[in-house]
Amino acid sequence: EVQLVESGGGLVQAGGSLRLSCAASGFTFDDYTIGWFRQAPGKEREGVSCISSSDRNRYYAGSVKGRFTISSDNAKNTVYLQMNNLKPEDTAVYFCAAKGPDYSGRYYKSTTDYQYWGQGTQVTVSS
After folding, report:
1. Which residues, given as ranges, of the chain have pLDDT below 50?
2. Helix intervals (H) in 1-127
3. Residue 33 and residue 64: Cα distance in Å, rounded?
4. Segment 50-66, tens digit of pLDDT
5. Spatial separation of the C-alpha atoms in residues 18 and 31, rounded to whole Å
6. What is the reported pLDDT for 49?
7. What count of other Cβ atoms lies within 10 Å of the Cβ of residue 61?
8. What local confidence, expressed as pLDDT, does residue 103 receive?
9. Three-class SS state of 116
10. 65-97 exposure pattern, b = at least 16 Cβ within 10 A, e = fewer
11. How do strand 10-13 and strand 121-126 relate by DSSP bridges?
12. What 3-state class would DSSP assign to 102?
């Protein structure tokens, strides 16, 4: 059974940092692209960052580039999202998602590209 479990969310002041984790199981981790998405109240779910399978190419949305860093630990089947200099507009539920198996080395930005989703973790940034 495929499982994605997010953790690391919480309440932080503007300018602070959080590190989200996405622990994966039930599939060959190295063969899957992992994406981070977020959804704020009343808004559509949007892509934040993703890391491709194989070459581990990385994508960042313009709104988080330079502040967020995605990384993976293949030994732990875990993808991390380090979020620095957080802003109130980063407040949302953050989800990780998996697509694969995929050997293209591409990254994928759309929610419809992904087959598996975690339950989400809340990030709240106070001003």
Report:
1. none
2. none
3. 19
4. 999 877 889 999 999 99
5. 27
6. 97
7. 16
8. 87
9. strand
10. eeebebebeeeebbbbbebeebeeebbbbbbbb
11. parallel
12. coil
